[in-house]
Amino acid sequence: MKLALDTSIISKADNVQTLLDHATSLGITVLDTSALYRDSEACLGQYNLENFDVVTKTVKCDYTLSRYDNFERIKDTFYASQKKLGYIELYGLMFHSVREVLEYPELWDLVSDFKDKEYVYKIGVSVTNPDELIEVIDSYDIDIVQLPLNIFDQRFAGILPELKQKGIEVHSRNTFNEGILLKNEWQIPEKYRSIKPIFQRIPEPKIAYALAFPKALKEVDKIIISALSTKDLDIFADMYNFEIDNIDFAEFRINWFYTKFLNVKICENRI
Fold first, then answer.
1. Exposed site from 81, 133, 216, 233, fewest CB < 10 Å?
2. Tens digit of pLDDT for each residue in 54-64?
3. For residues 4 and 171, is the Cβ–Cβ distance under 8 A?
4. How many angstroms from the chain centroid is the CA of residue 11?
5. Could you give the residue ranges of the DSSP H alpha helices within 85-195?
6. Sequence-distant contacts of 129-134: CB under 8 A, at least 24 apart
7. What is the pLDDT of residue 79?
8. CATH of 3-269, one of 3.20.20.100, 3.30.250.10, 1.20.58.220, 3.40.190.80
């Protein structure tokens, strides 16, 4: 099971313990959280997490502060996350921004020290576009990365083989493209009206095909989904296991993702 559970608003779940127990029964083993996700870490820390690998993220740097103050801020926030989560050994710790570790190499040294002390098993980054991912994997020995990937936005597909060659674990997010792939056509916001012809071509059930795209990529280790009830989890699990027809996912790729980020050719050339 590649599904991982986003816990950014887990405190709003119908019953957190029941949700976690049901996730375990479905084979979900990874919980995604962050120091920036409101009360997510504190909420999770109230429960037994021995069945899960917990991945959290640092706070973002405050560029109005000095380098030293940002270093101390990242360090103190990590220790606070440890406390909130019950001092478990974290599976993963990521930076929210590549810019931070590229501009402040001492921050990478800091989390590397956390890893050496076995506070965390894997360290890495959350990225938004391929060019910054390329820059950071060329600069550091990354263990784990989180990136946006879905049936519309396939910008990272070209670099996935290189990530796997480097032994980097890949977690994908935004599986439903800001929720569009969970909607009916008439519910699609006006700003996305240009994608409707492509949306219409995706077979039903669209949720199944949305999940099938990252599932089919052998380099993707986890697909992050959000659920606040056991019913939600069951729907995603059923759609994840739904047998779809053979299909060329490239026909659903939206080119405006490529024109917005001119780095896609870099990724393709690095295969």
1. 216
2. 999 999 999 99
3. yes
4. 19
5. 98-103, 105-116, 130-139, 160-165
6. 129/155, 129/261, 129/263, 130/155, 130/156, 130/158, 130/159, 130/261, 130/263, 130/264, 130/266, 130/267, 131/261, 131/263, 131/266, 132/98, 132/99, 133/98, 133/159, 134/159, 134/263, 134/266, 134/267, 134/270
7. 97
8. 3.20.20.100
Domain ranges of the chain: 3-269
Q: In the numeric block, which tokens belong to residue 146?
A: 């989180």
Closest to 163 measured CA to CA, from 40, 235, 270: 270
Mean pLDDT of the chain: 92
pLDDT digits (tens, 9 = 90+) for 3-43: 999 999 999 998 999 999 999 999 999 999 999 998 999 99
Tokens of 165: 């060659």
Q: Where are the alpha helices (DSSP H) in the chain?
A: 16-26, 40-44, 67-84, 98-103, 105-116, 130-139, 160-165, 196-201, 206-216, 230-241, 256-260, 264-269
Q: Do the beta carbons of residue 160 and residue 270 sit within 8 Å?
A: no
